[in-house]
Amino acid sequence: MGKVVHFEIPVDDPARAKEFYRSAFDWQLDDQDMGGGNIYTTVTTTPIDEQSRLPTEPGAINGGLMQRTPETPVPVITIGVDGIDDALKKVEAGGGSIVQPRTEISGQGAFAYFKDSEGNVVGLWETI
């Protein structure tokens, strides 16, 4: 069963959004250089195990702030899967479509975005 493991909130003004979420919810926000001028802000809403980088509280998830794009104009939930390629095949067989194919994040895993049968963009995450 695929569990929701991450969330992403698209933003237009990263500095403004970081200040909002930091002050409103006391979230820890850390910028990560993804290359090519792309900055992704990790959002820590709950303590994590430093070794696994997973939340220590059962059922809790952390997330990220990302630049709003035409493909991701609204918040995205991300589902953990054993294999993104297999999951994307099932998505397409079920009437969904791929928005962004499998993309590796060095030393962590891979992600992809798909559009479900209702037009919602949803993320997939595969941990290495």
Summing up helix and strand content along with how strands pair, one would put the structural category as: alpha+beta
- Give the helix proportion (percent range): 10-25%
Q: What is the tally of beta strands? A: 8
Cross-sheet strand order for the largest sheet: 2-3-4-1-5-8-7-6
Q: Largest sheet, if any?
A: 8 strands, mixed
What is the rounded Rg?
A: 15 Å
User: H/E element string?
Assistant: EHEEEEHEEE
Give the overall shape.
Answer: globular
Give the percentage of residues in beta strands.
35-45%
Mean pLDDT: 94
Report how far apart the termini are: 18 Å
State the low-pLDDT regions, or none.
Answer: none
Count of individual helical segments: 2
Strand and helix layout:
Elements (H helix, E strand, L loop, with lengths): L3 E8 L2 H12 L2 E6 L5 E6 L17 E6 L8 E5 L3 H10 L3 E9 L3 E7 L5 E7 L1
Parallel strand pairs: 1-4, 5-8
Antiparallel strand pairs: 1-5, 2-3, 3-4, 6-7, 7-8
Describe this structure as you would to a colleague:
With 128 residues, the chain is of the alpha+beta class. It contains two helices and eight strands, in the order βαββββαβββ. The chain has helices at residues 14-25, 84-93; strands spanning 4-11, 28-33, 39-44, 62-67, 76-80, 97-105, 109-115, 121-127. Strands 2-3-4-1-5-8-7-6 form an eight-stranded mixed β-sheet, covered by helices on one side. β7 and β8 (121-127) form a beta hairpin. The longest helix is centred in the N-terminal third of the chain and has 12 residues, at 14-25. The two termini are 18 Å apart. The model has no long low-confidence stretch (mean pLDDT 94).
